[in-house]
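Lay summary. Proteins are chains of building blocks that fold into shapes, and those shapes determine what they do. In this project we predict the shape from the chain. Here is one chain we studied, written as its sequence of building blocks.
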Amino acid sequence: MNNNSIFIEKLRSSGLRPTKQRIEICKLLFDRKKTFHFTINDLFKTLKKMSSKKISLATIYNTIHSFKKKGYLKEISVNKDKSYFDTNTSDHHHFLDINTNELIDLKKEHVDKVTIKKNLPGKKINSIEVLVKIENSN
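And here is the predicted shape, written in a compact code that computers can read:
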């Protein structure tokens, strides 16, 4: 099975028609060895530079959110105005470099057990993910 077949299946299983533009998005997201962190605007800029195909911001937005809903991407909200997406959907933590706006993986084993002392009625904790904001020390 070639990568295009994998991308087409990923798109179809997410409820999306596999257009040339969406296949380009898949290539950028999933045809790589390392985890990829991005904002939708960053992805839009990268695709604009890399792809000969015109891909609208709406197509990128809808594709990313369909992938997130299906579980192919994880969303990391860093504040009320900014979210990153991560191709590594396993439970893990992150550093956020506030000087460069880079999101960096932090393995679970590098963070001691987090204890939550408050419960909300009718709710249970699904997962705990730590976001550590870092900056230059100078």
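What the prediction tells us: Residues 90-134 form one domain.
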